[in-house]
Structure to design on (599 residues):
């Protein structure tokens, strides 16, 4: 039984053939399919090939059916491995998941970044993400005082 | 600016990321840089514990936050009274406010300041188009004053929640939740209101997972429970208090976790042959769940079934491919009788309890001679947990399975004492002397 395929085109001109059922996990793509404008392939101006490859990998894994019966426990383990990426890739994935409207991927990527912030001091967070502190010491102190409780 | 990619995300996505954090972590980001100073304020989430605030001014913080975001929607409100505070009845008011702002996730854990005093949730939790998950712990809920309407609610967790006197409260709530998938009900031991909710009926066309805990605390027979859920896939039944138990339409049931004595202590007093009513209850319960594929069963449940099986045979669990059971020393024979009801079992996990407080009325069987069907044709993997090598029961079991399982591929032994690390070779040597009916069987030892 052959399944319907559609073509996704990355911003840097690469084409990827994907099963329609897998691709429509993206609400954005699902709407385009409904509106029937996919004949020549779907151009994804905001997603470069390196990221689109990861997105397709995710969607394939999450397309659970008889051919791919996978338990929630196994999916969670897979998620961990999948998200073992460079920071810049993770942020690109957030942008892609947002643009393509793939809720579960968006949740996963945001949660991954949130976990990198959780429990850290501001200094540690700045260091993790290379954020420059443009407060003067007095300004920073004033901001801390606003919510003293969080910094104790 | 040398900032890594995170700064290239627009504000809207940064606030999204912050919404996955407890509020205390979100607030900390206010000092990261000027760009971050006010991002946390725009996060439509409050996720706090009272213990986050050393001087207990959580109330003014929450008030200020809600006031600042007066015009926006709230996605999640989570508040835990995890520490003693002067109870000031603020929780209900905050719930009213957040529900009015289109909340999707509401999670409130109250504090019992003294017996018979609880904070009760407002009526508007019964009418909310946006609520997707509701978790309430150690609070009270009132009788609904109107028809319950929670059209988006998928997850409901009620733990140690008090009710007033409406005997139909649970039915009213559930019938107002047409898409409810996941329900956890941990019933309180409410000594102030012992006769509340005597008849619990859980009837739902959408429910896929249900966990019920009702721990035995009163010697009586007036509690009963009925579960009617044709889409139910997972049932965790830990109700020890209900005397009448009816389970029906379990056509989708795939997994059951059962830990209950069916109130046999007092409702059936040792299950005398004359107690037909209890026998019928247990028979109907087992028949209703007989399509399960995966079962976890506790020791005391097995003991009740053992007593019961002397009156009427246990129905066959034809689809059961995976069984996890806890047994004690005197229960090995009982286990084999139960296994006879599982003719297609492939996977067996046993936990061995050495503590044995039940006095066996039967003479100790020296050898386990009986071999159930599944060992001859389907059982491929056996795992024995909390095993102490050198201890008689464990060894008996290991010998038994190796000797009698025709198609066994794996025997996994999880050892209790980690001190035997260097005795692995001794164990292996000894094991290799045991008779193995399945030549290709692999024995794996895990500490």
């Amino acid at each position: 039984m052959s399944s319907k395929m559609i073509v996704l085109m990355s911003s840097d001109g690469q084409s990827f053939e994907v099963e329609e059922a897998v691709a429509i996990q993206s609400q954005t793509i699902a709407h385009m399919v409904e509106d029937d404008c996919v004949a020549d392939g779907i151009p994804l101006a905001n997603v470069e090939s390196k990221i689109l490859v990861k997105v397709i990998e995710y969607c394939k894994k999450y397309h659970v059916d008889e051919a791919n019966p996978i338990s929630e426990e196994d999916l969670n383990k897979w998620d961990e491995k999948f998200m073992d990426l460079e920071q810049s890739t993770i942020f690109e994935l957030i942008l892609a998941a947002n643009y393509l409207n793939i809720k579960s991927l968006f949740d996963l990527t945001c949660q991954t970044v949130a976990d990198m912030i959780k429990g850290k001091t501001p200094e540690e967070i700045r260091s993790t993400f290379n954020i420059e502190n443009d407060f003067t010491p007095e300004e920073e102190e004033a901001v801390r005082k606003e919510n003293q409780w969080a910094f104790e | 600016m040398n900032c890594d990619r995170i700064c290239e995300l627009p504000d809207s996505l940064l606030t999204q990321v912050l919404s996955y954090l407890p509020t205390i972590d979100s607030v900390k980001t206010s000092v990261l840089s000027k760009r971050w100073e006010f991002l946390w304020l725009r996060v439509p989430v409050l996720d706090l514990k009272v213990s986050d605030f050393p001087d207990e001014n959580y109330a003014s913080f929450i008030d200020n936050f809600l006031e600042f975001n007066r015009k926006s929607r709230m996605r999640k409100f989570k508040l835990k009274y995890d520490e003693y505070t002067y109870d000031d009845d603020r929780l209900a008011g905050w719930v009213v406010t957040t529900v009015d702002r289109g909340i999707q996730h509401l999670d409130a854990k109250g504090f019992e300041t003294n017996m018979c005093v609880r904070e009760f949730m407002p009526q508007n939790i019964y009418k909310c188009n946006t609520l997707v998950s509701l978790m309430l712990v150690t609070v009270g809920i009132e009788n609904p004053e109107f028809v319950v309407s929670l059209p988006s609610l998928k997850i409901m967790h009620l733990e140690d929640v008090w009710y007033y006197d409406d005997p139909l409260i649970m039915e009213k709530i559930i019938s107002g939740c047409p898409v409810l998938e996941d329900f956890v009900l941990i019933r309180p031991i409410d000594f102030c209101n012992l006769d509340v909710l005597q008849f619990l009926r859980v009837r739902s066309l959408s429910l896929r997972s249900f966990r019920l805990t009702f721990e035995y605390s009163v010697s009586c027979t007036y509690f009963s429970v009925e579960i009617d859920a044709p889409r139910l896939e997972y049932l965790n039944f830990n109700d020890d208090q209900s005397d009448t138990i009816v389970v029906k339409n379990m056509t989708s049931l795939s997994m059951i976790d059962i830990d209950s004595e069916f109130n046999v202590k007092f409702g059936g007093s040792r299950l005398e042959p004359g107690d037909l009513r209890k026998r019928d209850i247990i028979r109907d319960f087992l028949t209703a769940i007989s399509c399960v594929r995966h079962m976890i069963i506790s020791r005391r449940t097995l003991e009740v079934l053992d007593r019961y099986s002397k009156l009427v045979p246990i129905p066959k669990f034809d689809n059961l491919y995976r069984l996890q059971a806890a047994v004690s020393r005197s229960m090995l024979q009982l286990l084999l009788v139960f296994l006879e009801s599982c003719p297609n079992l492939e996977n067996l996990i046993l936990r061995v309890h050495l503590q044995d407080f039940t006095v066996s009325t039967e003479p100790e069987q020296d050898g386990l001679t009986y071999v159930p069907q599944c060992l001859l044709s389907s059982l491929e993997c056996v795992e024995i947990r909390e095993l102490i090598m050198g201890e008689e029961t464990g060894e008996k079991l290991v010998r038994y399975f190796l000797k009698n399982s025709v198609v066994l591929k794996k025997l996994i032994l999880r050892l209790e004492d980690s001190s035997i690390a260097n005795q692995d070779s001794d164990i292996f040597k000894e094991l290799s002397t045991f008779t193995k009916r399945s030549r290709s069987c692999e024995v794996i030892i895990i500490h």
Observations:
- The interface with chain B takes residues 87-88, 91-92, 94-95, 98, 106-107, 110-111, 113-114, 117-122, 125-126, 129-135, 140, 143-144, 146-147, 149-152 of chain A (CB under 8 Å).
- Chain A has a mean pLDDT of 91.
- Chain A is about 60% helix and 10% strand.
- The two ends of chain A are 62 Å apart (CA to CA).
